[in-house]
């Protein structure tokens, strides 16, 4: 119970921090994030890259999405699975993709079976997070969608790289850990690239 409370307290505190960033700070953070993503060794060879649309003060991913389009990379967005509770699908995302709001009010591609990309084909999964710590542990919003996706990828050996994205203000010294938490080997912020060699990277 104490861990659960502390995790919720961390979520509340960090979300408030990133929500206070000004529009100018958010714009600059998105550009700075892209400059570091461009340095990732995985990017050159990757063809199918999962990202997400930023909400709730998350660091702006649109500059990265637009740059990936320019590099002729296939950008994928998560869609909540309509039948498998708590699971994600990844669908192709282009400037003309029809979008709808999901149960959380977040825009996602309208479900189209012809646009689904199998998890085994995804090269990089850029994951959102609320907070991260000195050991690469990630704290999400609490729904467990990405934890399940990363666990499923690890078990099936998809070969995808899981990389977290965050503002620098989202880092804390240590997070309370749950059994299902999947630590990340790489997290990118506007100021730097964090890397932990002993954590999962290739799923």
Question: What are the SSEs and their pairings?
Answer:
Layout: H1 2-19, H2 23-37, H3 41-45, E1 48-50, H4 62-70, E2 74-80, E3 88-92, E4 99-101, E5 107-109, E6 124-127, E7 131-132, E8 138-139, H5 145-156, E9 161-165, E10 186-188, E11 193-195
Parallel strand pairs: 1-2, 1-6, 6-9, 9-10
Antiparallel strand pairs: 2-3, 4-5, 7-8, 10-11
Helix pairs in contact: 2-4
Any descriptors?
seven-stranded mixed β-sheet; two-stranded antiparallel sheet; globular; alpha/beta
Contiguous helical run count: 5
What is the name of the CATH topology?
Answer: Rossmann fold
Distance between the termini: 30 Å
Name of the CATH class: Alpha Beta
* Overall tally of structural domains: 1
Portion in helices:
25-40%
Compute the CA-based radius of gyration.
16 Å
| Order of strands in the sheet with most strands | 3-2-1-6-9-10-11
Q: How would a textbook summarize the main sheet?
A: 7 strands, mixed
Q: Uncertain segments of ≥5 residues (pLDDT<50)?
A: none
Order of helices and strands: HHHEHEEEEEEEHEEE
Per the principal axes of the C-alpha atoms, what is the gross shape? globular
For the secondary structure, the number of strands is 11
**Fourth-tier CATH superfamily name:** NagB/RpiA/CoA transferase-like
Structural class of the secondary elements? alpha/beta
Q: Mind telling me which CATH architecture this is? A: 3-Layer(aba) Sandwich
Bin the strand percentage. Answer: 15-25%
Mean pLDDT: 89
Oligomeric state of this protein: single chain
Keywords: ATP-binding, Ligase, Magnesium, Metal-binding, Nucleotide-binding
Cofactor: Mg(2+)
Family: Belongs to the 5-formyltetrahydrofolate cyclo-ligase family.
Catalytic activity: (6S)-5-formyl-5,6,7,8-tetrahydrofolate + ATP = (6R)-5,10-methenyltetrahydrofolate + ADP + phosphate
